[in-house]
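subagent[fold] <- orchestrator: predict structure for attached chain, return tokens only, no commentary.
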Amino acid sequence: MSGAQQQSRSVASQSPYAQLFRIPGAKAFCISGAVARLPISMMSLGIVLALNHMYDNWTVAGSMSAMYILAVAAVTPFYARLFDRFGQRRVGPVALGVQIVAMLAFALAALARVPIPVLFALAICMGLTQFSFGALVRTRWAYALRGSQHESLLNTAYALEAAIDEIVFIFGPILAAFLATSVHPVSQLFVPTLACGIGGAVFFSLKNTVPPVLEPIDVVAAEIPDAQSNAVTGQPAPALQTAGDHAAPTPSPEDNGFRLRRLHRPYSAKPRNVLTYRGILPLLVVFVVFNMSFTAFDVSMTATMKAAGAERFLGLQLAMFAVGSCIGAVIFGSREMKGSHWRHMVMFLTLLTVGYVVFRMVMGNFLILGVMEILTGLCVSPLFATGNLIVKDIVPVRSLTEGLSWVTTAGSVGTSFGSTIAGAVLDASSPHMSMMIPWIVTLCAVPLALLGWFLARKRR
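subagent[fold] -> orchestrator:
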């Protein structure tokens, strides 16, 4: 066996995650992007903890956190479009600088106990400066894995990013609660600001993995004159130069057999809106609907454990779901699943629905519920990774960041709706009724995913 064959077999036998990090620059942008994502799990909770401690008002704290989340969701696609249009290298440092200034301004204002209306305005301004680091990292993975040799590892890369998201959401709230109770009520606002600044600066300084800005190329096909067209126009066919001729005249552009009319780059041309691609809107609706289940479960579980006098174990109970999701991401990324991504999404949504039904049945036994959370959580990260892969299949490369950010936005909108609906049901009824919301909304997402699958097949 030749040395090249042995090396090829050795690479093939490696774990897909090991192959992933052998790619130059992959470790650097993956780790720095993970650090820069810390605010997504800390800032919203940090607002609630800080305001409740300083002003002793849950309503104001919850409302300000919700306004911050909605502001982030509103501008995420706009920033993504800028990154696709002008590149991460040009837009990133400026956007990061504005974001850090806004986060520091809010943290300092909270520390100074400014009036609540001013703090509301600063919270909205801070949300309007946030962009999705997760979409930027996934776009870099797509660029780093381009080509036939590494294309199959994109499934592993997106599963890895889903696992990192879960790790961030496991440790972020724990760190925020610890800082708020053990250090200072506002310290949990400064830590994510520092993490975002350091991680983002390193991320945007990595030049080798920056995706290029792709401009659409407008090419008009060459016209080939033939004898028939010459006969119609009455023009004689151009004479061929023979070997006996003394000099060959330079052919004019009109006499060339292949005539390229124009090849230009229309910089003024705007890329097509991502939402107009068939299958994107059904996918976003699916993400809005089933993401309502997560915050609805969190709120319902909080009320359940509070009624049982077990609030001190709430963080551990909720973490079981994220642990299962993290394990699911590792398993999903180590395998190459065959068939349509839409079919995988329908399967994961169905399994998630069944898991939520079991939650409702065993919600009185926290130990069994924790086990079921781990098992059901195995479907969560694969579900998000599958959605990102669907976007990758539908949206062209030059608009990939915008497409991926729309998925993040849809998820944020869904989570805000879920907590609102669950809170209203709790006020009107009981935790047993609100715990039905997760399986109902996830079940409603299944036919929407089937519709997206149908449209995808029709598109092909």
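orchestrator: received. Logging for downstream: The chain has 19 helices and two strands. The first strand starts at residue 218 and ends at 219.
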